[in-house]
Design a protein that fits this description.
The chain is 42% helix and 19% strand. About 4% of the residues have low confidence.
Length: 366
């Protein structure tokens, strides 16, 4: 499976510039006025993983296929979006469809680029957007209360459980905290996800800084990092300017050299993907052979049959076992055959929890 991240933020914070750079397209117009992104643009980006190339080289695969991350560039939000101000209704509808939120915050000064709030304060901007999302969630939940209450009067036990959950969510939102801060039991998880709350989604804060401080950040980004730490969220420092320049370089060597001149070891894209994996609790497994080596994305804690179904639904339906080699063993023994001869290939059944980096071969019968 893949996953998608909606790029959100106030107008003129660098969202579309970042999107264009990350996806290496020009589908999202970047301009110095609000709402230049009207419809949500999307683009798929290969997830960089040096393990993939190493596995492919050892297997002498004819093709190497990465897993992908989808970015969706969503129209800028303004104060009052929860009441339909600006493009609020469309913004809220679009953000409801994504798995995680990449909240781009302006952490740079530039008198030539206007700011809708007239001053630069990324923490305030983050709180403004979060408030609009919380207000939208409260409106959504409040509409559920009356019909659920009627069902409870009819002794509907499921409705009673859902109503208690809705009331807990309303209470925490009313206290100024997002829904994701609510402690949810495993039994409540399905019902909680069914509520489709905007503030239940994981958030990554992307601090958009000027090129000269991309390696260190600044006082503005420091404030965002402190805020993220308090929330248990991820924050990364990026420069949309740098990402745009890197997108123009076709050779990997050129990109590495360019980053080195800025005292950077990796791109903002790599940082965002890593943060996204952490926030969404994702893991990667591989399939490899002479024809193809491919990376696959899976939720942490998923068992072998689910991984098999990620490759092909028939693999899950007729799952028998997964022949498994850890990444380190595959590399150390230079391939499947030597790893098997050394007793490093394991036969795992339906209860096996896939580990990040596993190389899997599924046996099935349909």
């Amino acid at each position: 499976m893949g996953f998608n991240c909606g790029i959100v933020g106030l107008p003129n914070v660098g969202k579309s510039t970042l999107f264009n750079a990350l996806t290496r397209t020009a589908t999202a117009e970047a301009a110095n006025f609000p709402f230049c992104t009207i419809a949500p643009n999307s683009g798929r980006v290969a997830v960089p993983d040096e393990r993939l190339c190493k596995i492919s080289k050892i297997s002498d695969s004819a093709a190497t296929v990465p897993t992908y991350l989808e970015f969706i560039d969503i129209a800028g939000l303004v104060k009052g979006a929860s009441k339909g101000e600006g493009l609020g209704n469309r913004f809220l509808a679009n953000i409801r469809e994504v798995d995680a939120i990449v909240h781009v915050l302006r952490c740079f000064e530039n008198n030539n680029i206007t700011h809708v709030e007239t001053s630069i304060d990324p923490v305030r901007d983050a709180e403004l957007v979060e408030t609009e999302l919380m207000l939208a969630d409260m409106q959504s939940l409040e509409k559920r209360v009356e019909p659920l209450t009627k069902r409870v009067r009819g002794n509907d036990k499921e409705a009673a459980a859902t109503l208690r959950l809705v009331e807990r969510c309303l209470a925490i939102l009313s206290s100024g905290k997002p829904a994701r801060s609510l402690e949810i039991s495993d039994e409540q998880d399905k019902a909680f996800r069914a509520l489709q709350l905007l503030t239940a989604k994981p958030v990554l804060y992307a601090c958009n800084v000027n090129e000269e401080v991309a390696a260190t950040g600044n006082n503005l980004s420091n404030g965002v990092e402190e805020m993220a730490a308090e929330q248990g969220a991820e924050a990364v420092i990026i420069s949309a300017e740098i990402e745009a320049e890197i997108a123009q370089l076709s050779e990997e060597e050129e990109r590495v050299e360019f980053l080195a001149t800025l005292n950077l070891s990796e791109t903002g894209l790599t940082q965002i993907i890593r943060a996204g994996y952490n926030a969404l609790h994702l893991t990667t497994f591989f399939t490899s052979g002479p024809k193809e080596t491919r990376a696959w994305t899976l939720l942490e804690g998923a068992k072998a049959p689910i991984a098999a179904g990620t490759v092909h639904t028939d693999f899950e339906k007729g799952f028998i076992k997964a022949e498994t080699i850890s990444y380190n063993d595959f590399i150390n023994f230079e391939g499947e055959n030597a790893a098997r001869d050394a007793g490093k290939m394991r036969q795992e059944g339906k209860d096996y929890v896939v580990v990040d980096g596993d190389i899997l071969l599924f046996r099935f019968n349909v």
